[in-house]
Amino acid sequence: MSGQIYIPLPTANSIRLLRLAPGSNDDPITCELEIFSLNEAPTYEALSYVWGNPQPAASILNRGLAQTVTPNLEKALRRLRLPDLERVVWADAICINQEDIHERECQVLLMQAIYNQASKVLVWLGDDEFGQAEKALRVIDLASGWCMTETNANSLSEIDFDLVSEPTLIQRAGYGSLHATSFLSGFLGTPMWEFDIMRVEVEKWASLRWLLERPWFSRTWIIQEVAFADSIIMIGQHELEWDQLAIATAWLDRKAYPPNRTGQDTQNMRRIRAIYACSPRRNMGVRLELAEALELLRGFDTSEIRDRVYAAVCLSNQEKLNHSLLKPSYSRPIPEIFTNATEYVIRNPGSRHAQLDILSSVTGERNVLDGFPSWVPRWDEKPRTSELWVTNIGSRWNACASKTSENVSVSDRKGLVVEGIRLGTIQFVDDRLSGLSSTEENLVQQLFEERVANLRSYGPFENLAEAFAQTITAGSSRNFDAGGGKGESFHWQDLVSYFAWPRSKEERDRMSESHAERMRIMQETSNFEMSIKTNHSFFVLNNGLMGMGHCSIKEGDEVWILFGGRLPYVLRSFRDHYQFRRQCYLAGCMDGSPVTAWESGLYPEDLDKKEIEIC
User: What Pfam families does the entry give (predicted)?
Assistant: First the structure.
C-alpha cells in the first residue's frame, strides 16, 4: 500500500507536508500528502510526539487510501484537526516513507531545518483521560508566577533575557548537564516557605507528577524539535507554552522537589531543564559541541540506537551530517557508527574541549564483548553519575599540559593510535572504599595508616594528609568555585576533622570541645564524607604515586598520560595493543607536571614518549 501512497521525493531538499482536511468528532481522519522543496514550502506546523505502542493499530485516509498509524498519532491528528479549515502539518511517521531506508537517511539530513522552519512546533503529550491536566497546569501557572516574582520579572520573556546573558549557561549544558546545578540557581535565594508552595493541594502535585511522567519527555529527538522554534504543548484539550513549562519546572525542581527524588517525574524535570538550557535561542546562537550533545542525549530513550548519533549531530550542527564519518546510514552496524562518531570528535573536538575529552564518556564494561572498540563510548547506555568527570570539574585539569597527539589516527582494526607517556604500573589496589558505608568509616583511616602515614613526603603537597585527602576525593571539594578556581585549601582540615569525629553517640557525648567547635568538626566531617569517591578504588603505582580509579581496575594495569587528554587514563596491556579501561585521578599529576618534567628531561629515559594502539 505504501507504494501507492508515496511518490518518490525528486530532490535531496524535498519534503512532504500533510494537508489535514477539516472534520469534527468521530469523522475519519482524511489527509493528503504533497511534495515541496523545503525552501519553497508553504507555512506549516511540525508535530512532535511519541509513536507509542503500535497496537491496536489505527487507520486514516491518505489520498483516499487506508494507511495504518499508531493510536497516539491518530489521536494527535484528531486533536489538531480544525472543524472548518485545512491544517498543514509535518509528522515524521507519515511524511517520511518509513519503508524506504534511503529516504529515511536523506530526511535525517533535513530534520533540524524542518523543525526550525516550522511556524510552530506542536508537542502532543497525549489524552487527558482522567482530567488531571487542568490541575497540573495550575501548579505550573503558580510556579512560573513565583519565579517571576522572585526574579523581579514582569513576563517570562524577561527571565529568558536574564538566562541568555548568563555567561556560564552553555557550559552547564555540556558534560553531566542532566546532573548540573539548576540554571536558575544564580538568582534563586528566597526560601520556599515564603511562597505558597505548602498550600498546593496534594492532588495538584499528583497531577503535575502525572504530566511530567508522559513518555514524550524522554524521547531522543525532542531536544532539537523544541530547541529551534516556538513550541506549544498540548495535553488533551489544554495547551501550554514550552517556555513556561521549562521555567516553572526548573523553579520547582530548585525549590519544592526533594533533591534525592529519583522518580520519572524528577528525571524528566531535569531533562526539560537541560533542553531549555542548551537551546541556541537562549544562548545567542551558540550550539552544543557534538561531544556535549552525544552525552546529553545519553539520558534519553530511542528505539533506533543509531539515532543517538544522528540526533546529536543535528543538535550540534546539521551540516556535519555530510561528513563521511557521520553520514546517516540505517544499514551500517551500530559499533561502526559509534566508532566513526568518536573518531570525528577526536579529530574535531571543538573550542571548548581537549582532543581526547570524549574518552571520559567511556563508562561501560561490555564494549569488547559487543564488538565495540574499548575506547568508544556506549551512548546507548545510561549516564553514570559515579564517573569522575560527571562532577564537571574535569575541565580544570590539564594532565597532558595542553600537549596534543599530532598523528592521532584509527587503524584498520579500529584501534586508536595515540601518543603519550607511561607513568607506571598499578602495584596495589584497595577496593574497600567502593562499598564504604557510614558504619565502616574507619576504613578511610586504616587506608591512610597502612599506605600513606609512613611516607616521608609526597610530591608537591605540604603534608601527607592533604595528598591523601585530594586522592580519595579525586580532587573535588568545597574549595573549588563554579569557575574552577581554587581558593584556600580545606582538604586536609576536613580530613583531620573526619578522623577526629567520634563514630558512636556515646563517644560524641564525651567530647570536651565547645558546642561551636563540635559543630565545626561535624561540618568538616560531613564535607569530607560527601566528597569521598566511595564507588572507586584506591591504588598505588610501582613508583609510589597514588590515585583513585574505577572499581574495575586491576593490579598490573598501567596509568598513562595521553597527549590530548586532560586526565590520566588506565590502560590494560596485551601483546601488541592496549585496552582502554577508564580515566583516573593521580595525585600531584593533574596539572601536567609529569609532562613538563619529561619535556625538560627530568624523568627517566624509560618514560619517553611512545605511540600506542588502543583496541
Answer: HET (PF06985), Het-6_barrel (PF26639)
